[in-house]
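Students often ask why we bother encoding 3D structure as a string. The short answer is that it lets us treat folding as translation between two languages. Here is a chain of 138 residues written in the first language.
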Amino acid sequence: MQIIKKTIAAAAFGLFLTVNQVSADPIVSPKAECKNNTCETFRVGMYRIKNTVSMNVMMEKEKGQKIAIRLIDTQGKVLHEEFVPKYLTKVGRKLNFSEMRDGDYTLEISNDHEKIVKSIHLSTNDVKEVGRTLVGMN
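And here it is in the second language, the structure alphabet:
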């Protein structure tokens, strides 16, 4: 009888912990996508480096905000991910696409509430000489 009481008490306590765990988790809402750099806490600039297949990405953010930078392919696979620490306010990154295949990519810069999405198109140019074209779009 003593063993049954202990088992029931342990099961009830485990259920109590599980219910409290689920209800304590915050509700995750989808991130609002900012158009034309309208995010409240950060701004992003991006341009192609002339005669290369590299892009410079510059970001300015409020101190205390943790920002994620992700490069994603068309299948949704994350090819590159990094986090900008809270103590930095200005960050610059160079993205080199020389080893990447032709195709469309997405650069997503986000914090907990907002995100900026940039489209990148990489294609080989077969006219006259072999070259590659890199285009970044909002």
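Translate back mentally: The domain at 32-137 is CATH 2.60.40.1490 (Immunoglobulin-like). Keep this in mind for the problem set.
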